[in-house]
Amino acid sequence: MNDVKKLAGQTLIYGLGTIVPRFLNYIILTPFYTRVFKHTADYGIVTELYAWMVIAMVLLTYGMETAYFRFANKEKDPARVYSTSIFSLLTSSLFFIFFVFIFIGPVSQFFNYSNHQEYIKMFALIVGIDAFSAIPFAYLRGQKRPIVFSTIKILNVVVSLGLAYFFLKIAPEILRKGGTWILKIYNPQFKVGYVFLSNLIGSAFTLVLLVPFIIKIKPVFDKELLKRMLTYSWPLLVGGLAGCLNDVLDKILLRRMLGSEGLSTVGLYGAGYKVAILMSLFIQMYRFAAEPFFFEQAGKKDSKETYVTTMKYFVIAMVILYLGINLYMDYVQILIGRNYRESLVVVPIVSLAYLMFGIFINQSIWYKIEDKTIIGVYLTVLGATVTVILNILFIPKFGYMASAWATFASYFSMVIASFWIGQKQYPIDYDIRGMILYISIAVLMVITSKLLKTGSIVYNTIISTVLMFIFIFIANKRDSFIRVFSGK
Fold this sequence. Notes:
The chain is mainly α. It has 21 helices and no strands.
C-alpha cells in the first residue's frame, strides 16, 4: 500500500507536466480554436495533421523511451544507455527532417496539402524536435525529477498558447483597428498555419531548456547496446504504431472517405473527441509515473499484489473522471464552440473507450517486465484491425458515430485479449468483478442522467451530483478509496 501511495504522489507531480499543460490546452486552445475558426473545415486541418503527428512521433521514437528505462535499470552503466539513446534519436530525427524538406513536393501531395507545403515543413520540424526530446524527458523521469520535468512541459505550453493567441486573436485585432505595422510580422492569409508555427516555436524553446541535460553526459555511442535496445523496442514500435492507429486513424479515414465534406466532418468529430480525450490526460500523467514504478516493483516478491491494488484504485479514479465529464455536460460543453457542439454525442462513447485503454495500460506491464513485448504487438494489432474494419464498413453510413464506436470496440477487444493471454503467461489476480461493477454502475448513471435531463441546468446539476455521490459512497464502502487517495 505504501508503494501505491508513492505512485499516487508521483502521478500528481507528473500531472503538473502532463495533465496541467494539456488541460490548459483544452480549456484555452480548444475553446479558442473552435471559436476563432468559424468554418469546421479549418479546424479539420488542425485535427487531421495532429493525427498524422501522433503516428510520426511513434515512428520516430520507435519504442526507445521504454527501452531506455529497461536498459538503464538493467545495465551497469546507465549513462552509456542514455548517451546511446540520444545519438540514435538525433540521427533518425535529422534524417526525417531532411527527407521531408528534400521531397516536400510528393510528401505534401501525399498529405493532400500541395497548396500548403509550409504546413508540412513545420510538421516535420515539430515531430523531429519532439521525438529527439523524448529521451531527455525520459532521463528526467528516470532520475525522479518530476518538478523539472513538469516545469519544462508547462513552459512549452505557455509559449505555444501565448503565440497562438497573439497570432490568431491579438494581431488580427490590431490590424482591424488600423495598426498596419503588425503586417511586418503577421500575415492575415496564413491563418491555420499559425497553429503549427506556435507549436514549432514552443518545441524549439523546450529543446533549448533540455540542452543542459543533454550536454552533461559523456558522448558515447555503443553500437552493440543499441542493437540490443532495438531488438527490445521494435515490437514496441509496431505495437505503438498499431495503438496510435486506434486513436487517430478515424480522423484520417473520415477525410478520405467522405470526399468534399471530409475536412468539415473531421473538424466536428475532432472537437467532440477533444472533450472525451480528457480521460487520456489522466492516463498519460499516470503512465509517466507508473512505467518506471512498475519496473522497480518487478523484482519484489509482493509485486503482483501491488499490481492488483494499483489497478483497482486506478479504475476507481478513471470512473470518477468518466462520470465527471459525462454527468456535467452542461458545463463541459463550453470547451468547444457552438458550431461544434453537435459532436458532443460521441463523448460518452469515446471516454468509455479511454477507460478501457487505461485498464489495458495497467495490464501491459506483465509482458514488458517479462521481455515479451511481441505480445503487445499482437494485442495492439488486434485493436488496430478492429478500428480499420469498423471504420471502413460503417463510416459511409454512420459518419463519425461509427468512428466513436470503433474506438470503443478496439480498446475493449484489447482488454479482453490481454486478460486472457496474461492470465496464462503471467497470472495476476485482478479484482475483475469490482471493475465490472464500477464500470457498469457508471454507464447506467450516465444513461440515467440523460433520461432525466431537462432544460434546467440547476436541476441537471443536482441530479448529476446525487449520482456522483452515490458512486463515491459505493466505491468507498467497498474499497475505502478515500483513505487511500488522501494518503492516510
